[in-house]
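We treat protein structure as text, and this decision shapes the records that our systems exchange. Because each token names a local backbone shape, the row as a whole describes the fold. For reference, a complete record is included directly beneath this paragraph.
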Amino acid sequence: MYEWTIEYNGNKLNLTGCEKKWQLISVKGINPVAVDLNTSKRVGVPGVHKTGSQTPERVLTFMLRVNHPCERNRQELLDYLVPNAEVKITCRTPLKTVYTTGTISMNDYDTYTQSQIMQFEIVCEHPYFIASETRKDVNLKSRGGFSFPLNVGINETYRFEEYYFTDKVVVYNYGQIATGVEIEIKCLDTLEKPTVYNVDNPSEYIELNDTFLPGDIIKINTNTPSKKITLVRNGVETKIMRKLVFPVTWFTIYKVLVLAVNYADKMLLDVYTHDEVAGI
């Protein structure tokens, strides 16, 4: 059983948990979106040649049966399903929870009938579903040290671990679509021109031409179209895209991405990822 919720202005509408008010009859548009291929013909060559492709937007179509009292329940739905409203759609399946965002483009319903049917569409610019769970990989690891029992009235064992910095952070993509990453650098010392680079291809890197102080937090987002770099210093967040050293590489993770930094022992490196799937 799939569970669908819609969030609008911070309020959530449960489409599948209110059977006394309405029932969700069908949801269309959850399969992978068909790709538009651009092709051309070559003289003397059979068939066509692919020149490009484009993935269009996703259109989700929901159909509901509104129960008695129809007018009251329909009005409750209309408070959320406002045309041109920006909403977040979440789907929970037995294996995963994913979401997407979009705009309500159409809302149609029957009136003056004993059983009202409501249908609405949501146009999603991003054609893929994003996993709600955020994965985190860090360059600070721990390894077992030693342990000993301590009698304080109850039998307990205290374990001591040693923390150490690693030179690399290995990030995996368990989704179906290549995505960007969100990198957070916490400065433990003064850093001059900090650089994050791809171990497998050192020509891919992000370098910042500036000096950063202990306690500074640098946030780098390589996701399209959310590319940005910000600095948090003394609780104040500012954009620092102008500090980039060009050319710049906005990291993309296909299946695995190995990142490293030039100050491995002077910074905490956290890498956050969200898997994306083509359909549910």
